[in-house]
Write a structure and sequence with these properties.
The chain is about 40% helix and about 15% strand. It has helices at about 75-80, 105-120, 140-150, 175-185, 190-210, 215-230, 235-245, 245-255, 255-260, 280-290, 330-345; strands at about 20-25, 30-35, 40-45, 55-60, 85-90, 130-135, 160-165, 270-275, 300-305, 315, 320-325. The strands form 2 sheets. A 9-stranded mixed β-sheet has the order 1-2-3-5-4-6-7-8-9, with helices on both faces. Strands 10-11 form a two-stranded antiparallel sheet.
Length: about 350
């Protein structure tokens, strides 16, 4: 057992339900269609390990942007070989899923919850008492939230959670600290940067808190002015505020993963990428360690020579080093997840 109270080197680590709609595509695969919000049907695939009766299953959640099902093929292959089933799905508005693509956290989480509820009805082919959730980046926040939520009907709790490159911190502060680090790294001076952060805090508090339109508009203008005072052009400032105003961005301000992680009692594996330029290791790792410190089976690790999506660093024919491959294609990361899940889901060996 590796506790979350310290960051351990890699060398020490490796060793309400919805009516089921599905179609058999091969002896070990089912193309599934799952109802979510009214008018939204999510398409995906349930893969079953050959010759295993009622195996455990991992719900695989894609990251931000237009993520389709099957985005982690190398990890799925390994899990299936161990005897663990997998389920992944196209986000709404992506692939065969219906609706308009919306990447706001609350929307994505509702869809993931609908898929989880459906999976819990599939005791005919999987073991509902051994369901794990794995998510990366955006879904590394959603996975723990699903595990912490109380099902609408009596159901076994989530058996294990794997979160990769997942932001960790408190509501509002997580967003603003990340923004501060990015702007400071870009060269913005401390005094104007403080003004930008404070103006952003006021604006997003009003925008996400349902304030009167006049207050929201005034806050928006305040952010533009703060960026201009920091040396940005008016066009650049307007572009920044447009990004902040997008629901996919502003919804991140309302996320508080730290409070969620503190609720989790099941095993948790939190992996971070040493080469991550999206989620700050400096901010996320200490927050994850602190939030999981009371969980006796929580592991926090930083993986070397991988980037945000856990693609490995490879040397090309001309001697150039670059990250290449599918998301979660680094062999050491796959090996660690496979062994860790195998033990927690009762298929170790």
């Amino acid at each position: 057992m590796i506790a979350a109270r310290r960051l351990l080197p890699l060398a020490l680590l490796i060793g309400a339900p919805v009516a089921p709609l599905f179609a058999q595509t091969s002896p070990n695969k089912e193309a599934v269609r799952i109802a979510s919000d009214p008018g939204i049907t999510l398409a995906g695939e349930l893969q079953l390990p050959p010759g295993v009766k009622h195996p455990p299953v991992v719900l695989l959640l894609g990251g931000a942007t237009e993520s389709p099902h099957g985005i982690y093929p190398m990890l799925e292959k390994r899990l299936l070989a161990r005897g663990i089933a997998t389920l992944s799905f196209d986000k709404r508005g992506v692939g065969a899923s219906t609706g308009r693509f919306v990447d706001a956290i609350d929307v994505v989480q509702r869809d993931a919850a609908a898929v989880l509820a459906w999976l819990r009805t599939r005791g005919d082919v999987i073991d509902p008492a051994r369901i794990a959730v794995l998510g990366m980046s955006q879904s590394g926040v959603i996975g723990p939230a699903l595990a912490a939520a109380t099902p609408r009907v009596a159901a076994p709790p989530i058996a294990a959670v794997v979160m990769l490159s997942a932001p960790a911190g408190e509501r509002g502060k997580l967003f603003l600290d990340s923004m501060h680090e990015q702007l400071a790294t870009s060269g913005m001076k401390p005094e104007p940067l403080a003004g930008v952060i404070e103006a952003t805090r006021r604006y997003l508090d009003d925008l996400t808190g349902g304030a009167a339109p006049g207050l929201v508009a005034a806050g928006r203008a305040g952010v533009v002015d703060a960026f201009v005072a920091a040396g940005w052009t008016a066009a650049q400032a307007e572009g920044a505020v447009k990004t902040l105003s997008d629901p996919a961005t502003s919804s991140l301000y309302t996320v508080g993963p730290g409070a969620v992680l503190r609720q989790l009692k099941m095993p948790v594996l939190a992996l971070y990428a040493a080469g991550d330029t999206v989620v700050s290791n400096r901010l996320a790792i200490p927050s994850a360690l602190g939030a999981l410190s009371d969980n006796p089976d929580a592991t926090v690790a930083r993986m070397p020579k991988v980037e945000h999506a856990f693609k490995p660093l490879v040397v090309t024919g001309d001697g150039t080093a670059e990250y290449r491959g599918w998301p979660i294609s680094d062999p050491d990361t796959i090996d660690l997840i496979d062994r860790w899940l195998g033990k927690r889901l009762g298929v170790g060996g």
